[in-house]
Design goal:
The protein has 1100 residues and is α/β, with parallel strands linked by helices. The chain is 51% helix and 13% strand. It has 44 helices and 28 strands.
Length: 1100
């Protein structure tokens, strides 16, 4: 009945000492129990088994505090142990109804119940009761703020203890009960307990040790210290002091400590490091530093890649196995997402010592999303996260088609649940054969059952009712079978980790529902409250794993992980601010509060100062893990390209080891030996080889190593052909086979001017849009383009209705115009809402605000007509087989192109020599007339229409081709401007521009504003332009029929259609790529253009 302390620094053989003791006792037939931290049990079992040959509960047993508690609970028939889920729910419920004073605002915040639960757990571990807190609150000397805070905590803690006691056994009390059972039950007089790998003990654990020391033959405790008062071992010194006080108070014999003074693990630099890491002043190592390395990498990803290459290099010779290597990460959240793909790519088996919160599992997210769909009124993101989860029936392609239509119409809940609105949507969708049935099938088989479930939980119900309905729904959609399918897939792929996760997940879901039913089943809540409770239940559970293979690289963090027999250690992320870890924040009881409580006899967990000592000790423990090599690395920037600094610890290393330099990947070493480091597994080696070959082809140097690697891949994988294809690849499009093209462009085909202009701008974008019919996945929005199209349509309808109702531009009244505009706006809004779209009040206001802009534009059009001798000839005049007739072009070989189109408005002036025709096009945006664009075929619409209209009647003559800007102009003005000046400026901004006949008669017949804004040309110019454009169109149509789709967009004054093209991600056009180049267009003066096409000089 005594306690024996065994002291020894890291690597000094403490575990070996107690293993020898256990082996000796085993030889004598005496029982030994080895207790280690929970995460170290599987390592300790393997290690002890290797040393003593066999272990069993009767002779030698490896355990932990948690295992001892579990065994005690089983032995005493304690089956009602409350799960973390139940405790989470209870605490959240308590917070919801307890009136708090100090935490009144904080208690409303998400996560507050988690912080409270953590604090209560700490009270239990440190054996602090509500009564003790209440007593110090009432009688202690504390300021009013702290008194108010402790009073709130006492309320919550007292109610928590009461609620827990009504439901079952609190696992936080397990250690306390174990100590009591040891004191009253069982015979340990012939058993020796060995405690190894512990740094400190909480009061509950110390009480267990005390009771064992009173009942057992002996208790051995190993501690990492040399027995001195050195600040490095301050946490251990504190633990020793607690043990001494415990022994003195209980009459337990504390034997003279055994001090191990020989480093059995480290040699050379690592032995020197162990002795000199934290003493000041530090010693200086006088030899070469070959066993310690410091490297920097650009980012955490590059740091992980660098580590993987080194591991492969170390294991290739056969001297080391993966199990000999360990990795400690300063921040597991940063490095784990990179370790998984990088190590799998390099073929490195690994085990990450971490716990995964159940709340992050995709199936748990799926269950929560089922509730979120209801709460968020069937928001599109929620609905399609549900549909695309892989846990619902439904054709994948049909789901994507349905999503496109839902997003483009901003579809709301009413459409999902209302048959009439749904049928309206489907009837207006441009669907392929059979698609409508598939979309309706998705709604019938997937959405309707979901709606039915939501109807069953609508309003306020008991938690029990909602749990039951949710369970029934999950069963009805076959969630269990979906999980089983994934389990079979993981088994087939030998993915043990994910298989274990999915095996547990259904039980976690059922456990959460059971917990809610047990704790709050009778409570009446709405769906939002239930969702909060369900999330709280899930957040109380996390999944952990043990290694499935002995030959793994062990990966952990600086505080939790325990590693053994590690020859080579990589420490990643040794950056300032994370290594050592920053101070903990967000605790309900801070350092000052703990100090006051400590004065009153209440001890709690470590404060910031003590944690700083622990961090220093953890760094020492980390750097002394390996027996042969230590590789330290840090990143120069994070994943967001923000600069990072190395940790101060690295400066200490460089002071101790003068020759230790920080290696960097900024300048890659090109010698053959260094290049060999990149030859690891097939996939990463192939990546690097292609990079090196590419540099070589671009004129760079190459190591012979990579030529040998290239030869290897060519001989073993026929890679030479693939690499030739890789380097000869071009994204440049050539020509579609004539026969294939005939399916899209037959011998006689129809096209439009806008399509021809698109083809002229970039043949490949035409191919993507009109042949492949690719479309953007558009969401619902009312854009500037939509607004412009709407205004354009309103003006056209106004003109038509005005004629139909017996008005003209001279007689139409403002009241009539405003009335029509209001009617068209309301019709537009109704059309949007009828199509299942939801329009916000803000958007409705902006649409109705267009009233003034439309009236202003129409008034200017009226002024243009009334102040001239032109009169409207027609509106929306169509060129097609049913109206004026198509514009036809003979292409040869029996091929013919028919161009169709619509003129927004055409005007006529009955002059002395015939009827002069001008065509007017309404344009939004900053449309600028350019004869250069017309000449090159980039902007030919208006002139083709004019030519066609003039050619349709022998009495028609060229009058002009003009653009009218439909806009609400913004310009600079000051408070001196009156209304008349403002109106004139608006008229000037919106004046028609383009090209008009420059004859005196026609200028006189045109309103002054238009005559001043348009360029002038002779009649011969118009005739020559007609002939030129016919040649341009004919050539474009011939190229179309021949299947020319080369990727050669135009470039004019540094402008290219690529700047607004929606297909950039498809074509990948880049002038640096082979076969990618622009068609550069010269900027010609008007006179040069007229001379080029054979027309007369410009009259301007």
């Amino acid at each position: 009945m005594a306690i024996q302390l065994i002291y020894g620094r890291s690597g000094y053989g403490k575990t070996g000492y107690i293993t020898d003791c256990i082996s000796t006792r085993l030889g004598k037939g005496k029982k030994s129990v080895l207790a280690v931290p929970e995460q170290y049990t599987h390592i300790a079992e393997h290690k002890l088994l290797s040393s003593v040959g066999s272990i069993s509960p009767e002779t030698v047993e490896v355990t932990s505090f948690n295992k001892m508690i579990s065994r005690m609970e089983s032995a005493n028939g304690i089956t009602d142990v409350l799960s973390p889920m139940v405790k989470n729910i209870i605490m959240a419920d308590i917070i919801s109804y307890t009136e708090l004073e100090y935490f009144s605002k904080m208690s409303k915040l998400s996560g507050f119940s988690d912080v409270c639960l953590k604090l209560v757990g700490e009270f239990k571990k440190y054996r602090v009761s509500p009564e003790m807190l209440d007593d110090i609150c009432q009688n202690g000397k504390m300021n009013p703020r702290l008194q108010m805070k402790i009073a709130d905590i006492v309320k919550v803690y007292t109610e928590y203890v009461r609620r827990i006691g009504e439901l079952g056994f609190n696992s936080d009390d397990g250690a306390t009960l174990l100590a009591e059972k040891i004191a009253t039950d069982g015979d340990y007089s012939e058993t020796v307990f060995f405690f190894d790998e512990f740094t400190s003990f909480i009061p509950q654990e110390l009480e267990i040790i005390r009771q064992l020391a009173l009942k057992a033959e002996d208790v051995y405790i190993t501690l990492c210290t040399d027995g001195s008062d050195h600040v490095l071992f301050a946490p251990i010194t504190d633990t020793v002091d607690k043990i001494k006080r415990m022994c003195a108070a209980s009459g337990i014999e504390l034997k003279q400590p055994v001090v191990l003074r020989e480093n059995r693990k480290h040699k050379g630099e690592l032995a020197f490091l162990e002795k000199n890491l934290f003493p000041y002043p530090k010693g200086v190592y006088d030899g070469d530093c070959t066993d310690i390395s410091i490297t920097s990498a650009a980012t955490p990803y590059e740091e992980t890649e660098q580590t993987a290459r080194r591991i492969i290099s170390l294991c290739q010779g056969g001297k080391y196995r993966f199990k000999d290597i360990g990795i400690i990460c300063s921040d597991m959240g940063t490095y784990a997402p990179f370790i998984k793909p990088v190590f799998e790519k390099h073929g490195i088996p690994y085990f990450i010592d971490e716990k995964s919160p159940a709340i992050n599992h995709p199936i748990v997210s799926f269950v929560l999303n089922i509730i979120d769909i209801y709460i968020n009124d069937y928001r599109t993101d929620n609905v399609f996260a549900f549909l695309k989860s892989g846990l619902c029936d439904g054709d994948e392609d049909s789901i994507y088609v349905l999503e496109n239509y839902c997003r483009s119409t901003n579809m709301q809940k009413s459409t999902w649940v209302n048959d009439e609105k749904w049928n309206t949507l489907i009837s207006k969708c441009e669907l392929k054969d059979g698609e409508a049935e598939k979309l309706c099938s998705i709604r019938d088989t997937v959405i309707k059952p979901l709606v039915s479930f939501h109807d069953s939980i609508k309003g306020r119900h008991s938690v029990s009712h909602i749990c039951r309905k949710l369970y029934e729904y999950l069963v009805s959609i076959g969630l269990v079978s979906h999980i089983e399918q994934r389990l079979n897939l993981f088994e087939k792929e030998q993915d043990v980790k994910h298989g274990e996760e999915y095996e547990k997940i259904w039980n976690i879901i059922i456990g959460a529902l059971d917990a809610l039913n047990d704790v709050s089943g009778d409570k009446t809540v709405n769906v939002g409250n239930f969702r909060t409770l369900l999330q709280t239940a899930f957040s109380g559970y996390s999944t952990g794993f043990i290694p499935t293979s002995l030959d793994n690289v062990s990966i952990g963090n600086i505080t939790r992980s325990k590693m053994d027999n590690i020859k080579i250690l990589f420490v990643l992320g040794v950056n300032d601010g994370v290594f050592p870890a920053p101070p903990v924040t967000g605790e309900l009881i801070g350092d000052r509060d703990k100090s006051v409580l400590a004065d009153g006899g209440i001890e709690l967990s470590t404060d910031s100062k003590t944690r700083a000592f622990f961090e220093r000790f953890f760094m020492y423990s980390t750097f002394t893990v390996p027996s042969e090599f230590l590789f330290i690395s840090f990143s120069r920037s994070d994943n967001s390209a923000r600069a990072l600094r190395p940790s101060f610890v690295l400066s200490d290393f460089q002071r101790m080891f003068v020759g230790l330099k920080i290696e960097s990947d900024i300048i890659e070493s090109t010698d053959d030996f260094s290049q060999m480091d990149y030859i690891t597994a097939q996939a990463p080696t192939l990546e690097k080889m292609i990079e090196k070959i590419t540099e070589y082809k671009n004129g760079g140097d190459i190591s012979p190593v990579w030529l040998d690697v290239y030869d290897y891949f060519c001989r073993n994988f026929d890679f030479g052909t693939k690499l030739d294809e890789y380097y000869s690849y071009t994204n440049a499009a050539g020509q579609i086979d004539r026969q294939l093209m005939e399916q899209f462009v037959p011998d006689e085909f129809y096209t439009t001017i806008s399509r021809l202009q698109r083809y002229r701008s970039c043949r490949f974008s035409y191919f993507l849009e009109y042949i492949l019919k690719l479309e953007d996945n558009k969401g619902f929005d009312i854009t500037a383009m939509d607004t412009g199209s709407f205004v354009h349509g309103v003006i056209e309808r106004l003109c038509r209705d005005m004629d139909k109702d017996g008005y003209n531009f001279a007689t139409v009244t403002d009241e009539y115009i405003y009335g029509k505009i209001d009617l068209f706006i309301e019709e537009f809004i109704k059309q949007l809402t009828d199509n299942s779209a939801y329009i916000s009040k803000r958007k409705m206001y902006l649409i109705r605000r267009l009233r003034g802009s439309i009236f202003r534009c129409f008034s200017l059009i009226r002024d243009h007509i009334n102040n001239s001798r032109f009169e409207p000839l027609g509106y929306e005049m169509r060129f097609d087989d049913d109206n004026i007739g198509c514009i036809e072009f003979e292409l040869g070989d029996g091929r013919k192109a028919k161009v169709t189109g619509v003129i927004d408005r055409s005007d006529v002036y009955h002059g002395e020599n015939g009827d002069y025709i001008r065509v007017v096009d309404y344009k939004t945006g900053n449309k600028v007339f350019s004869l250069n664009d017309v000449f090159y075929g980039l902007d030919i619409q208006l002139f083709v229409y004019l030519n066609a209209l003039v050619g349709s009647n022998s009495n028609y003559r060229y009058g002009g081709a003009l653009y009218f800007k439909v806009d609400d102009p913004i310009f600079k003005a000051d408070n001196k401007w009156d209304e008349d000046k403002t109106e004139k400026e608006i008229a000037s901004e919106l004046k028609m521009k383009g090209l008009m006949l420059g004859e005196e008669e026609l200028i006189g017949a045109t309103d002054a504003v238009t005559a001043s804004g348009a360029k002038k040309a002779t009649y011969g110019n118009f005739v020559a332009l007609d002939k030129h454009l016919r040649r341009v169109i004919k050539e474009l149509c011939k190229e179309m029929t021949e299947g020319r789709i080369d990727m050669r967009p135009y470039n004019k004054k540094s402008f290219s259609p690529c700047q607004w093209c929606g297909y950039k991600s498809v074509c990948g056009f880049d002038v640096s790529k082979k076969g990618n180049d622009y068609e550069y267009i010269d900027t010609l003066k008007d006179e040069e253009i007229w001379d080029s096409i054979g027309g007369e000089s410009n009259v301007d």
